[in-house]
Write a structure and sequence with these properties.
The chain is about 45% helix and about 15% strand. The chain is of the alpha+beta class and about 250 residues long. Strands 2-3-1-4 form a 4-stranded antiparallel β-sheet, covered by helices on one side. It is elongated, with a radius of gyration of 22 Å. About 15% of the residues have low confidence.
Amino acid sequence: MDDVTDIGALVREVRQELADELRLRLREALAGQPREWLVNQLLDLALAPGLPAQRRSDPSVAPTEEPHEERQRRAERVRNLSLDSERLRRFVDDYRMLDRDTLIGRGLLIDPPVKGSCPLGPEHRSPEGEQLLTEAKDLLHALLFGDEEAGVRLERVERELLTLTLPRHKAHAIAFVLRAATEIGAAGTWRDPGGAANDERAPNTILQVEYGEVAEELVGNGITACLRLINNLEVNEVVLYARMENVEESTLI
């Protein structure tokens, strides 16, 4: 009986030592993470994943409206893009060359954490990288919402639907899209084969936005290029899910 008691005590002692070591190592790992990321992770754990995002108190879920001053500044920058089909082609060609390694090599992206972890902040971007991120967001806004009055000269002939899925605590990266988006709460189902960035059961936000496409499908190419660049400079996901599909066959009137 004494041997059994001694074994039980030994098991409890080892478990306590392992628990103390785990707690210490986890504390050290968490101490190196950005405060905003920690808050968002705690909120995601505390709140049920099935509820619509806009009904949650998560501060990482951006409001549906940008401040008026920021909308005015973006509108001015969009007008300065003087966006037409030719300029859009040049933007797409330039953005396609800017993968993560290229951004780091050019000094636009600075010591970024591993993909699938926390979003990238200003400390991870040079001033030129910050400017490039702003440009990509402005271009995305122009492609989704721009018309001739906004300085966007694209002959849109059909309607398309963009569906974008991203972690809820990173939704602020594209807050301006929420202005005209349908927002849905969802739980992630993807598992990283490498085990580094699973999002299974993670709280996600699904955004759906209708936009006008041109005959050459340049707008879709531009949206893809912008989202890839925004992901590399800020969102920092291994996979950023975006799907574009035709809404109807009739032309815009």
